[in-house]
């Protein structure tokens, strides 16, 4: 089959079909993925309470940032921003002022994994406006360890239809930087779940990380200045499907994480959207098993755990997206 015919065939194939056709189930994923320089502190509490992570202990943590837009008129400057909370951090680069919009996970020199809803509302109109920031601990400071990369392409799942449907299905995006992102002591890659590997079990403890709110309540939370972490249990999916929990808002391609009541440690807060759920499956390597998708308004509600996109459900889509990117660009 000649190259042009192959391109035409891939153009009409679904992502899953593209994987099956090419036979590439495992591409060149980093062999040393998931190795962190430090193990997380065992005293971590919920992100809302602000358990600060040891600096650079989660080297795959990404801050997805977008410039604020200035509207000029005969009066004071009005800032329109892309966060749900007006209390956000901003940084100036040249003539642009950037804000943290969502978290993300570096899984490969060419790929960042994050949530599709982070790019709703016209935020994909100009992908060059986005930037990927790694090697950060302090959100509101420029650090010597941080690395900034411009975005080349954004691949949002083709069946992501929020907010047109009640369910937030297929809340997954792959972001490709302009240039490959090299590994360093402060920047590294998380592993994807192993194909055919062990499944997560109810009660298993995993970690969420991000700059989500440290002061929560019924109103929007305030972003943290430092990277936070929380250790949370996987909830049984049958329990999560109960009407008093999330009911039909959840599907098998999602993971529910956290405690059911206010006595336990609640889950991730607003501002952690797109960030990772990290688990160790009998090995020292950290695997990104979830992408923070949605949770209760105000971050704290009884019987409302946080919900993550189940990464393992989209392994074929991830592989196929990389294949399509390779052939078409």
Automatic annotation (TrEMBL):
Residues 47-323 form the Peptidase S1 domain. GO terms for biological process: proteolysis. This is Chymotrypsin-like elastase family member 2A isoform X1. Keywords: Disulfide bond, Hydrolase, Protease, Serine protease, Signal. InterPro entries: Peptidase_S1_Elastase_sf, Peptidase_S1_PA, Peptidase_S1_PA_chymotrypsin, Peptidase_S1A, Trypsin_dom, TRYPSIN_HIS, TRYPSIN_SER. Residues 1-18 form the signal peptide. The lineage of its organism: Eukaryota, Metazoa, Chordata, Craniata, Vertebrata. One of its GO terms (molecular function) is serine-type endopeptidase activity. It comes from the Eukaryota. Pfam families: Trypsin. It comes from Phascolarctos cinereus (Koala). GO terms for cellular component: extracellular space.
């Amino acid at each position: 089959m000649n190259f042009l015919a192959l391109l035409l065939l891939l153009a009409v194939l679904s992502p899953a079909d593209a994987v099956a056709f090419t036979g590439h189930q495992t591409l060149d994923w980093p062999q040393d993925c998931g190795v962190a320089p430090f193990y997380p502190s065992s005293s971590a509490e919920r992100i809302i309470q602000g358990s600060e992570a040891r600096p650079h202990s989660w080297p795959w943590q990404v801050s997805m940032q977008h410039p604020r837009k200035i509207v000029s008129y005969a009066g004071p400057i009005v800032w329109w921003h892309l966060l749900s909370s007006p209390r956000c951090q901003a940084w100036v680069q040249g003539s642009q002022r950037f804000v943290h919009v969502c978290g993300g996970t570096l899984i490969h020199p060419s790929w960042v994994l994050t949530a599709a809803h982070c790019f709703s509302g016209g935020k994909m109109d100009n992908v060059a406006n986005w930037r990927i920031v790694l090697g950060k601990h302090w959100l509101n400071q420029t650090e010597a360890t941080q690395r900034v990369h411009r975005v080349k392409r954004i691949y949002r799942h083709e069946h992501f239809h929020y907010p047109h449907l009640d369910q937030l299905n297929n809340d997954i995006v792959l972001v490709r930087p302009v240039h490959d992102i090299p590994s360093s002591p402060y920047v590294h890659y998380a592993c994807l779940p192993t194909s055919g590997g062990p499944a997560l079990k109810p009660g298993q403890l995993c970690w969420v990380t991000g700059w989500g709110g440290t002061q929560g309540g019924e109103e929007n939370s305030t972003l943290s200045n430092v990277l936070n972490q929380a250790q949370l249990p996987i909830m049984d999916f049958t329990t999560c499907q109960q009407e008093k929990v999330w009911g039909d808002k959840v599907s098998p391609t999602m993971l529910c994480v956290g405690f059911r009541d206010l006595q336990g440690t609640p889950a991730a807060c607003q501002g952690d959207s797109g960030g990772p759920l990290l688990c160790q499956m009998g090995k020292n390597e950290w695997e990104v098993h979830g992408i923070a998708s949605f949770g209760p308004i105000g971050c704290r509600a009884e019987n409302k755990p946080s919900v993550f996109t189940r990464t393992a459900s989209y392994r074929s889509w991830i592989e196929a997206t990389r294949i399509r990117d390779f052939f078409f660009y």
